[in-house]
Specification:
Elements (H helix, E strand, L loop, with lengths): L1 H5 L6 E5 L7 H10 E5 L6 H8 L4 E4 L8 H6 L5 E4 L9 H6 L3 E3 L6 H16 L2 H10 L9 H7 L16
Parallel strand pairs: 1-2, 1-3, 3-4, 4-5
């Protein structure tokens, strides 16, 4: 989205990446073809972000490291677009961004497969009581009798014959 958007504007705009966004050289090359690209990997405060992006038109950053709040948007008058390297917008002051005419872009679909796999892994973890067993084994190295109540608690449940229903809101 960010690359498409920038082609509609001046090809020599200032683009700043504030943090590691998992871009490879091809991504960076495409951004360089759109304007003057500056890359940082260690921006962690709003004050440093303002200093580094005061004259930027496009900023790519991590909302979990930088508080993109009213103060930030008030301090970067040339900003036209903020692209974040996450799916959610929950740590961005969208009202202030909108008031300043700043478009916000996210990365929809980022890590969908990883999230789905984690959900399945957590289901197995719960059914087989893996966190409980791991914690119990760290606290007590004695192996419990499998026939005891404690031993049965460590085993968890078999999935054979069970029915699983999945309800979700994801992509």
């Amino acid at each position: 989205y960010c690359l498409f958007w920038t082609t509609r504007y001046n090809a020599e705009m200032k683009i700043t990446i504030l943090n590691d966004c998992f871009f490879n050289e091809e991504h960076l090359s495409r951004l360089r073809s759109l304007g003057d690209l500056t890359v940082f990997e260690d921006t962690s405060t709003v004050e440093v972000a303002v200093e580094r992006t005061a004259d930027s038109e496009i900023v790519i950053g991590d909302q979990y490291l930088i508080d993109f709040n009213k103060s930030y948007f008030d301090s970067v008058p040339r900003l036209k677009m903020l692209a974040i390297n996450t799916t959610a917008f929950n740590k961005i002051d969208l009202v202030s961004a909108t008031a300043k005419g700043v478009q916000i872009a996210n990365t929809p679909g980022y890590s969908q497969r990883a999230v789905a796999e984690l959900a399945i892994g957590l289901m197995f973890s719960v059914v087989r009581r893996i966190p409980y067993g791991e914690r119990r084994n760290r606290e007590n190295t004695d192996e419990p009798d499998p026939a005891s109540q404690e031993g049965r608690a460590l085993v968890g449940y078999n999935l054979e014959g069970k029915v699983l229903g999945v309800v979700g809101y994801g992509g």
